[in-house]
Amino acid sequence: MTELLPRPFVFLRHGETFYNRAYLIAGSPDVPLTPRGESQAREVGILLDQRPWSHVAVSTMFRARKTARLALPDSQLHFYAGLRERHWGALEKTPIQDPMPYFDTPEGGEAWADFQGRVVDSLNELLTRFEYPLVVAHSGIFRVICNVTQGHPYGARIGNVAPVWCQPPSAGQEVWQLTPWQG
Fold first, then answer.
1. Using an 8 Å Cβ cutoff, are 160 and 16 in contact?
2. What is the spatial distance between Cα 12 and Cα 65, in angstroms, rounded to a whole number?
3. What residues does 158 pair with on adjacent strands?
4. What is the pTM of this model?
5. Dihedral of alpha carbons 144, 148, 154, 157, sign
6. Contacts with 61 (C-beta within 8 Å, 6 or more apart), sequence order
7. In the predicted structure, residue 17 carries a pLDDT above the cut 60
């Protein structure tokens, strides 16, 4: 399935890593947060803690797990391999390109269709079971969300720990609304 079930959720990208700061593609390396990334996670926790989440879904990668633990230390976290960042193969640890070659399969990397399929499957599993989940993952996951809800993966990069409210179309709308979440 290449569509998201029409249920609202909040998406949160992990805190800053060295790769983010250096504008490098991290992809599959399991890298830690920088001290700034840890601070970002604690700060966003003040906002996130205002809401009782029906479910907190987190990528199994360290940077997402650490962000979720720092932001919501008292919440039960649930880990999903399907929310892992894309494996960029030969492009990992190289500078971020503008535009990124999302639809190309990098040498030794994960094909876009496979990546999008596992992400959409994971998100739809969550949206089937939980009323209003929080998803803590990666910029690549957000690119998939954009592609299936807006028709393309391009646009400004999502900031570290900048929550986005993902709302399905309502009456008179054709596309999902992806807007900053303020709590």
1. yes
2. 12
3. none
4. 0.97
5. negative
6. 14, 30, 84, 85, 138
7. yes
